[in-house]
Amino acid sequence: MFKNIIVRRPCRQMIHGLSNANLGQPDFQEALLQHDGYIDAMKRCGVEVTVMEEDDRFPDSTFIEDTAVLAERCAVVTNPGAASRRGEEEKVAEILTLFYSDIETITSPATLEGGDVMRAGDHFYIGLSQRTNQEGARQLIAILEKYGYTGSMVSLEKVLHLKTGMSYLENNNLLATGEFLEKPEFKHFNIIPLPENEAYAANSVWINGTVLVPAGYPNTLAAIQKAGYNTITVNVAEYRKLDGGLSCLSLRF
Ligand code: CIR
Q1: Catalytic site residue from 35, 74, 161, 188
Q2: What is the pLDDT along the chain (253 residues), one digit of tens a residue?
Q3: 245 CB near ligand 1 (under 6 Å)
Q4: Which terminal Cβ of the chain has fewer Cβ within 10 Å, N or C?
Q5: Which run of H or E residues covers position 31?
Q6: Backbone angles phi, psi at 36, to 5 degrees
Q7: CA distance 70 to 93
Q8: DSSP code for 79
């Protein structure tokens, strides 16, 4: 169960964030409203929400998930792989001292972004992507093992981050699409497959028994409900324009 969520308000510069989506520039005012909606949805799941102020130095800083990997027994501040995102993690590390006494860090030449880390029980899958290198995964696994967790690497072919294409919904249920439908390391999960035209919704988020699903993906919503979950739909269309999904917008612990 999660007790806390940390989010970071989008900054005006967000419209210049990194993107390969080809969906046009996000509308800042609309993005602020959608962020309000995201926070409300989180609160409905019974968590305490800490809202960090925006930081115009970093257009992508609202995608706070990439800056840390958090669990009950450890907190790890990452070293983002995208050059324009280096430094986002510093303010996050400060906030984390309110919640954790010891904070570990990923250090160069290692790079790692939290979007590449998917937890299932006490095991952490780490995607090797354009943003997370082998050394990043190696450092994270070594840290996790110190605290009694395990980790393994997953090769990625097409997606930005591991969780762009899959989400663990607890109870052995794994939402997956594309390249992840066939990977042998995930075969033991009960896979809820999503069609290519709803691939964006593979990034949904389990919070204390409820699954937050991006608005506009009816087949995904129905499949998650059929698997027995309460759901809340959240409109994050402006963030999709920057390749960001639901999970990217928060740290959950
Ligand atoms: C980026 O390319 O870094 C941002 N525009 C999107 C980050 C999305 N984060 C995530 O999937 N965890």
Answers
A1: 161
A2: 999 999 999 999 999 999 999 999 999 999 999 999 999 999 999 999 999 999 999 999 999 999 999 999 999 999 999 999 999 999 999 999 999 999 999 999 999 999 999 999 999 999 999 999 999 999 999 999 999 999 999 999 888 999 999 999 999 999 999 999 999 999 999 999 999 999 999 999 999 999 999 999 999 999 999 999 999 999 999 999 999 999 999 999 9
A3: yes
A4: N
A5: helix 28-43
A6: -60, -45
A7: 11
A8: B
The yes-or-no answer on residue 161 being catalytic is yes
The pTM assigned to this predicted structure is: 0.97
102-124: burial string, b at 16+ Cβ within 10 Å, e else? ebbebeeebbbbbbbbbbbeeeb
Which residue segments constitute the domains of the chain, with CATH numbers given?
A: 4-252 (3.75.10.10)
Q: Is 130 exposed, middle or buried (0-12, 13-18, 19+ CB in 10 A)?
A: middle
